[in-house]
Amino acid sequence: MKRISSESMLKTVCWLGAVVDGLLAIMWFLIACGYNLPNLLSGYVGHGVDYQQAMYIAAMFMATWAVLLIWCAQKPVDRKGLLMIGACFIFLSVILELLFWRDLFKGIGFTFGVLKRLFLSGLFTYAYFYSSKTE
What we know:
There is one protein chain. The longest helix has 28 residues, at 107-134. The relative contact order is 0.18. The chain is built from 4 helices and no strands. Helix 1 runs antiparallel to helix 2. It is an all-alpha fold. The two termini are 18 Å apart. The chain has one domain (6-134).
């Protein structure tokens, strides 16, 4: 069985992360514009100008991460550290939600959001260490 190259693995994971982050940025921007959509990461449907502003700021940060991951995909072996930074912050977001907001966020939307982030965090970590082992 042919082994996948480090560069291919990292490039694929970077593009996957960029697509996910880009879609989240678009959704959060729509929420910021007043569309009554549930947040894909928590299932939460917020209301009010404060929530819309927070979603606008979050959308800008998420769009930045999407662009950084596209940049990472151009030279994935050299820039793979970005994946570990992302993996750590994704995992931290799950821990913080479980510690501080588990009573606010409930249901299948919250569970699905946590599982998505744990999967992405694990995938980023795996790709990083896989590429370190095969270099």
